[in-house]
């Protein structure tokens, strides 16, 4: 588990997005700033290889180049919010989809749709979903990737908030999957929402919690 440094700046951004009275525009902009940090932290976990370049003054800089055998995979709908930040940082990157929705009564995940690069088995995968709550959706999505031949150790699960329960479930089932988050919450409540939490992030981010 890789937790972003809990700086005062990050806490101030969480204060904005967790505020139930936050304006949607402010929430979107602030959440995007955090998600950009998450994407950068996830890319840091990927393989790098040496690359030498010549500087404008004619000297050699012994640098690094990140692998290009990587793709993003988002879990709609909330996961779509993270795609823009991935495209900004790595506009060349392919992005697939795994549509899994959790039943609001049973809380169980259902797989509806997948669209993944044909060569995904040879790639590292950034799995994008802002919320890790019960862990059911994460487990189902990881199972899909493993079924397509992606090695467990090639998956980096990137989320905005994580519950202790969700982290435990993913680590117990898939110990080689790495996770990146900006916050580990206190607990899940009886409705499977995280506390202190952020509410339904997808509804708040895309504006579907607002009456016409």
Mean pLDDT over the full residue set: 94
- How far is the first residue's CA from the last residue's CA? 40 Å
Strand order of the largest sheet: 1-11-9-7-4-5-6
The low-confidence parts are none
What can be said about the biggest beta sheet? 7 strands, mixed
| Overall body shape | globular
Radius of gyration: 18 Å
Instruction: Using the coordinates shown, work out and report the CATH topology.
Output: Rossmann fold
Number of domains: 1
Q: What is the level-2 CATH architecture name?
A: 3-Layer(aba) Sandwich
E-strand count = 13
Structural key phrases:
212 residues; alpha/beta; Rossmann fold; seven-stranded mixed sheet; two-stranded antiparallel ribbon; 6 helices
Walk me through this protein's architecture.
Pathway: Pyrimidine metabolism; UMP biosynthesis via salvage pathway; UMP from uracil: step 1/1. InterPro entries: PRTase-like (IPR029057), PRTase_dom (IPR000836). There is one protein chain. This protein has 212 residues and is α/β, with parallel strands linked by helices. The chain has six helices and 13 strands. The chain has helices at 8-18, 24-43, 80-89, 136-147, 164-173, 201-206, and strands at residues 2-3, 48-54, 60-66, 70-74, 94-102, 109-115, 124-128, 131-132, 155-159, 161-162, 178-181, 187-188, 194-195. It has a seven-stranded mixed sheet, sandwiched between helices. A hairpin with a 6-residue loop joins strand 5 and strand 6. Helix 1 (8-18) packs across helix 2 and helix 2 packs across helix 3 (80-89). The protein is globular. The mean pLDDT is 94.
